Fold this protein.
Amino acid sequence: MAYFWFKNRRRAKMMRAWAAENGLEFSPDTTGFTPPRNPSKKHDASGIGKHSAKAVSVFTRLIGLSKIQSAFPQFASNRFRGDWQSDRNICWGSYKGHTIIAWDTVYYDLNADSGSDIDWSEGEYSSILVLTETEIQPTLITPNSLGKRLSALGIEEGRGTFRMSTVKFELDAFNQAYRVRSTDQKWAFAIIDQAMMEWLMQHKKHTMELAPGGAAVSTWFTLSPEQFKEQFDFCIEFLDRFPEDLQAAPSSGEAN
């Protein structure tokens, strides 16, 4: 615990400066953070939305679900990463026309049955969210390496379902470079056209989780400000490359 406390004191200074430089809000923890509006919250991948607000508060506090995960339950990237989660170094606001959130998660895994003198393990990693009004179907876009595919399986486990189907494209080189799984193959074919495939093959990044409301990237380590910017630029350009007929925002009936 002490290591991450000192580490995050240093990171807080660095991330505060980066947020100010980019016109973003900053909070070292969730006490000063108000989640942006989420009209897609009803698309709940975690099952937490079926509970009352009071139950969600108790669940979050006692079981350790992060405030950001609770606010954006349609994303499952971080759902099972740690028995207890704490959001740190949160930056949020408008960037290149999109609402974004960047943050670190300190997580703790309880080892009650390990027989070890140390009864928990801990770690820290960074994540980003890019929000959009464009209609999106749950989809995972994963660089085709063993480590990235394992992380994608973890996201599907977090969604509580393995009902996504693997999407195979006509371009063999793309199928070798990326693994795409989606709940809506027709939609996946529509957004990943020839031009998008060529662009993705030039920009192999982390696994990107698409869900109603936006795109998420969750890493296995903490990102530098430059790496945060790189991931935001990647996700935003990806979303902005959607075919024009798919760029339209959903009807006002989608908002809650």
The longest strand covers residues 98-110.
